[in-house]
Amino acid sequence: MRVHLFGAASSPGCSNFGLKHLASQGHGRFSEESIKFIQRSFYVDDGLISVCSPAEAIHLVEESRALCRTGNLRLHKFVSNDKEVIAAIPLAERAQAKDLDMALGDLHIERALGVQWCVEADEFQFRVVVKENPLTRRGVLSTVASVYDPLGFVAPFILVGKQILQMLCRDKVGWDEDLPEHILPQWESWLKDLPHLAALKIPRSYLPSSFGKVRRYELHNFSDASLNGYGACSYLRAISETGQISCSLVMGKARVAPTKQTTIPRLELSSAVTSVRNGDFVKRELEIENLQECFWTDSKVVLGYVNNDAKRFHTFVANRIQRIKSSTNPEQWRHVSSENNPADCASRGLSAVQLKESNWLKGPNFLWQSNLPPEEQMVGEVEATDPELRKTHVHTVRTKEVNTMANHLIKFSDWSRAVRAVARLQRFVREFKGLQTRTNEATSLEERREAEVFIIKLVQEEAFAEDIHKIKSQKVHTLNKRNKLHQLNAFLDKENVLRVGGRLSQSALHHDVKHPAILPKKSHVSALLVKHHHERVYHQGRGMTMNELRANGIWILGCGNVVSSHIYKCVQCRRYRRTTEVQQMADLPEERTETSPPFTYCGLDCFGPFIVKEGRKELKRYGLLFTCLCSRAVHIETLDDLTTDAFINALRTFVAIRGPVRQLRCDQGTNFMGAKRVFSELLKGMDQERQRAIGCEFVMNVPSASHMGGVWERQIRTIRSILTTMLDKSASRLDTTTLRTFLYETMAIINSRPLSVEHLNDPTGPEPLTPNHILTMKSSIILPPPGQFCKEDLYLCKRWKRVQFLANEFWRRWKQEYLLNLQQRQKWQRTSRNSQVDDIVILKDDSSPRNEWKLARVIEAHPSADGMVRKLKLLISDTTLDKGKPHTRLVYLERPIHKHDDAGLYKCDITDRQGRWTIKWNLTVSSEPEDTSKEISPLRSFLYILTAVTGLLLSVLTSAVCLYRKSWTQTPNQDQESRALSYAQFSVQFGRESIQVAPPAPSQSCAEYKMQPRQRESVHLEAQFNPAKHEVQYKAE
């Protein structure tokens, strides 16, 4: 390839590779300094380097140009602060002055990586040209980002601008909104101070020209934090052979504190981590040999954390302490007072004038002295009340640990890998014994078969040890008839593998198929085999998986349950076969059960379109349905289109006819969402009392959840059935007025429908209750009146008494005949597991096949009033569904693993009885409180408690008996006793004195146990003796 594209995404990487490859070919022909200059000192096409003398600089320029010419590259545009070096460079190869600043003198200004370098004065300067940006959040961001300061020379000044930008973000000010009045003065003050940065001059060289030979370099890193921000700064301190001292700022960092409020110790710890990262970066880039490094902080809490080795912390603090200790030693950390800490400038922010007068650029005064201040013992102890401490309680019981070869197979999650590992292990044993020559070839078929037989024998010897012994002793008849091996007529073959006898010994099948190997139900090897053969049949059902196992010579006891359990947990099978989740039908909301005026609580939706004619034009018209959630009455309006304006006009018409509405329930249609936004903006300027008086609450259902609006969705179907009949013969002559008339007639028909059907076939029963009874008060119901209204009020001339009687009669019958019919759940009767955050699901999509349904992760779960989750917020391919999804559209794949800390107390009661000791061990365990929204049924709770208590009593009794037998052999004159207790991989070794001599003093011992695979952790136990109760308590700190 001879040509490379200019401007491609890969162009910078390819160019850098070509330049470094050219330099690597110069070994032997050019000096190492020139090669290192090209390989290490170039950033894209700019090379920056500093040498000790003009002669070295001239030699480096000549060699580097010659090296680049070997690859047909021209190295030019040289700039130097030394006139002798410039004179040695041809005029055509020099860089031209890009800028002249008359206010500062005729000094050449060159930009090195965006930083302005005054060449003749050899200083860095800042000249910021303030553009006319708008006084908006976007303008603030543009101005703050225009100050390019990669090394953090003016980081405290930029921090003030960042804090102003953070305030705008915290107040949720729009990108193009004007700055609030309380922030505008701060921003204008910062803008006025911005040109003052030109007065700052930072020497490019860390050392003055007359400094002499350096005897020792030191790197001092400072860190500090406040509520507004945190930062760090690094200083290079040099000591010459004559005793001169120079100190220069190398790098600074200043960051705003997180918007989420946190504690000062956590911010101090974050600043310490920033200081460590700065130190690592500076030390790597400076490449100074034997560079001594020191870290300074004014926080005693951070020093206590760094010097702690015994206590454990929460994840936030533990991770940052681990980062600090990975690069530094506790001996490198020292305390500095706040007034001498230059990092205090980076945590609070300074103006340009304050920055020039502070110790930010030169460092604290004690760094300029010949001797550093002596180390003070300022390391604070981590108190037991520190909220960052994670307390752990250790439970100890006696148990017998049995490590077998089969236990090591738990580390494998795939049968083929386990077989290959065992095969290689067996090959290594043979090679070690000299039975075969060493080879690195892949395992053969015969070796893998031997490994499979070896694994099966290991599992059988562990699970059926007693049965195998009886079979070898020719005592098969002694097997219990309930034993499944007795039913299988088990026998041992020539390889001592336990196999099924059965009735197929005379068949022509393979020996392993006629007599499959027997494996226990509860074995990791059995689970691996089921998984392996389930995948071989491409995730088919239980029957095909079991048949595949039998065809390959495997007989698992209780195989059907094992296979079914695996298929239930198989993620692939869940994805393609599991049904969607269904939660129990929710209780009726309060607005559907209280006696409120009609249309106080409504559900609404659009339907249509209907084609009407206006002259020769054919236009679309839509219907808007309002359904009263209480009385089930309906109201229909006509929409010219589905815009927000048309919906608002129809809503105003509805309110003018039916009265004010307190709540509207609907789906998330664009017209409904637009109306909600318009009403919210209009109500912003009103006081709260007026908002409550005229406000209308919109309640939006989640998408694809039409069952949440079943009250009004069912009425749309009724409307369509009526309109189909009415418009059958007049559809071609339909205009807007006729359509509106038809819709009103449909509304009258629907409002005349009976709400209950109990008395429809009873000629002597009361008139069926309909929504019109409360809307129009036209009823012939004559029943004993409730309250102070009587039957004669129907015939009075006073209209208000007639209306009141009919209204009360409607609500009485509504409660008796209609409301009670809603008591029973028609479907979704059972409760299911609530979705939790981080659940992995697939999202049902009716428009695509199942293998194309998208994977999603639950990031928010919104429980209903009864604690059941029916609405979720999902993350799909880095896109969040802010509108939510219903619970009924999901299929669970995986559930999150919720970790919890163990808790509990270990007690030992010691009693002296006639010269013999009785030791009673008790174990009490307490766990963290469960979420009340995840309660299980009382029967299941009782079963769980009964099982836990039974297992606990058995473990306590076993430990008590074993320890009592051991203590029986002890004499009361023994002064010291050593006893080992173990729980899983956790072991404790402690000692105590005889209680007959004196009460034992509190003792401490150290234990080691496994917290996670491949991690070990040390835990200190503290024993306390209570002579009044004869009780020893052990707690883990």
From TrEMBL:
PROSITE patterns: INTEGRASE. Residues 593-779 form the Integrase catalytic domain. GO terms for biological process: DNA integration. The keyword Membrane applies. The chain crosses the membrane at residues 942-964. SUPFAM superfamilies: Ribonuclease H-like (SSF53098). Signal peptide: none annotated. Pfam families: DUF5641, Peptidase_A17. Keywords: Membrane, Transmembrane, Transmembrane helix. GO terms for molecular function: nucleic acid binding. This is Integrase catalytic domain-containing protein. It comes from Perca fluviatilis. The lineage of its organism: Eukaryota, Metazoa, Chordata, Craniata, Vertebrata.
